[in-house]
Amino acid sequence: MLVLLLGGFTTAIADTLAPEALIERLQAGGLVVYWRHAATDRSHDDYDLSDMDDCEGQRNLSTRGREQARQVGKGFEQHAIPVEEVLTSEFCRNWETAHYGFGRYEIRTELYNLPIIQEDERREDLIEGLRRLLNTPPEDPRKNTVMVGHDLNLRHAAEVEIEEAEMAVFEPHADGARLLGTLQPDALAGP
User: Fold this and answer.
1) Tens of pLDDT along 129-186?
2) CA 28 → CA 22, 83, 143, 153, distances in Å?
3) Which of these, 62, 63, 76, lies nearest to 33 by C-alpha position?
4) CA-based nearest residue to 144, from 35, 34, 36, 26
């Protein structure tokens, strides 16, 4: 049984693209990039979300996180990866990641941080909303959509787990979004 489980896991990993091939595929467009917000200051938790414009009550980006976000934006530019739109959760760490990376963003409620939501129906709506976004191709097939979200949302919507600042790249498909692979910010360093 263990051999069968490990065999399936190995096959799933073997089916994803290496970073260089993934970057080439992104250059062609038509994909959806789910970017978990950059590194945060873990000494500070979310404690007051009553005003989402007030970043003081939230866990925010660290200095390293701001550097990672800039590195990703610069990497997209250096590798000529075209971006149609940048969507983000309304949490400060997310829109700041989008801002430092791309200088532009649109806040989307479908990307709200899942652990905060207590109502089952609302949680399911968020998960389904993210699945739809992951499977929605950019209007211009030569460009890509970038979403800046949270880890748990992606785990529930696509059964994919990524670290802070890591990106999961999906190809919209009739059978549901397909994971092509993941990228660390360092993979985008230099052309």
Assistant:
1) 999 999 999 999 999 999 999 999 999 999 999 999 999 999 999 889 999 999 999 9
2) 10, 11, 7, 27
3) 76
4) 26
